[in-house]
Amino acid sequence: MRVRIAIGSLGLVMATACNQRAPRTAAPLAPRAQHPGESVDISAMSATVRNADSTRPHCPVYPHAEASLTVSGVNGLIQYRWERSDSTMGPLYQVTADSAKTKPGAMALQPDDWTDNRPGVQLTVEEYVHVLYPFDVRSAPVSINAKCY
Q1: Could you tell me the pTM of the whole model?
Q2: Taking a C-beta distance cutoff of 8 angstroms, is the pair 90, 115 a contact?
Q3: Among the four 13, 55, 74, 144, which has the fewest Cβ within 10 Å?
Q4: Cα Rg of the chain, angstroms
């Protein structure tokens, strides 16, 4: 028996979009209610398109988004992933927060790096960081515009 798999251009982009791997032990946890004094803030959001340093950049180009996380009153695991307006969801990442031991400040999150290799197609995507645990929080969007030739 032969099995044939065909992936269209959108499927290929979605399959290769988040090329970073989440830890194998990361299993999604159910969110809980936010307690008084707890906060998780996503800040310092930025986005660039690497290899797009001319008016007609050659393919591929590499969209890149990054952000930082600031926590207060939260101890333990924090799970998050990058999500895009084109319905692409990145892998689940986790960091550990310990308010008693961690100095105040922002923790850099794993960036979202992917490849766009579609000549002549204008790509406009908004990216978000979605914190799934300990409670549900979404960042403001950061916009990415890319086109290669």
Answers
A1: 0.78
A2: no
A3: 55
A4: 18
